[in-house]
């Protein structure tokens, strides 16, 4: 979930609504995480002069309980944990990031300027501001948070390879970082080359660069010359990598079933949907897309349309894949007899992603 999505999507999230997880609606948004900065904050000062009381806030929601907000100072965010020094309490407290629904900490004026430029579509300028903010930031965990926002900006501007480099930089200091979920993997071979992350066969051997290996495997999985090597790389990554990388590798392997084993698809879909429900919400977009493709092939058009709409409305960072997902949703809606909803979805696609290959395909349809 991105704070700069359409307002209605933010309202859904604030209400605790997650529209789809497997075969059923889920009304628990505890896995979603936002970076909410303090508006008008001054430039980040040395850590020793930051005020202890009121510097940072963390809002936590456990299962179906009411959200609870804690004040204090964030000491670290790494892997799946956040460590908070509570205001007025000497003992530190550890939270699972999957339970955090809102996170507030000081940002620099440079970072604020970057967010403003990004919202205006000035991505290159935004990245320059973000890089300055990263260079002057003294807290390691905050550097990673800022780098993740910069990586997301790279994806939004279509520079997926730059995003991978930034995520690799995060993983160098936090191997289990949740930000691995941001990797712009290839989830559909129909995307144009320029709409995909790059990848060559030699990248599959990059043992010390798991993000690059995973991205290359996703790119080469539909290439008959390299499918075997790509599949082997994904199997190794799913067996020996930190959870976020492993989950994505496993979901990439689902694509091979769509390509190679359509007869087993019905049974496998149930397994995939069960695994999807165990994933953090922010990691579900790509796997959800594969499940949607499976449902479409099974002619379960109503469920497929809902699954396809997850990405464009809940995590639309990758414009090309979000647009293709909307086009597939429109086709499923039409196939299920919901012609009016299909037409609305097509108009939304053309409005939000006019430069995508999916929009070009839609314009060429009779």
In short:
Helix content is 51%, strand content 12%. It contains 15 helices and eight strands.
What's the layout of helices and strands?
Elements lengths: L6 H8 L3 E4 L2 E3 L8 E3 L18 E5 L7 E11 L2 E6 L5 E5 L3 E6 L3 H11 L3 H14 L3 H17 L3 H14 L36 H11 L6 H14 L2 H18 L4 H13 L7 H13 L3 H8 L1 H5 L4 H17 L3 H14 L4 H8 L2
Parallel strand pairs: 3-8
Antiparallel strand pairs: 1-2, 4-5, 4-8, 5-6, 6-7
Helix pairs in contact: 2-3, 3-4, 4-5, 5-6, 6-7, 6-8, 7-8, 8-10, 9-10, 10-11, 11-13, 13-14, 13-15
Written account of the structure:
51% of the residues lie in helices and 12% in strands. The protein is an alpha+beta fold. Strand 4 (56-60) and strand 5 form a beta hairpin. Helix 9 runs antiparallel to helix 10 (285-297) and helix 13 (319-335) packs parallel to helix 15 (357-364). The model is unreliable at 1-52 (pLDDT under 50). It has a 6-stranded mixed β-sheet. It has a two-stranded antiparallel ribbon with strand order 1-2. The protein is globular and about 60 Å long.
What is the approximate shape? globular
Side-by-side strand order of the widest sheet = 3-8-4-5-6-7
Q: Which percent range fits the helix content? A: 40-55%
Oligomer: single chain
Radius of gyration: 20 Å
In whole angstroms, how far apart are the ends? Answer: 34 Å
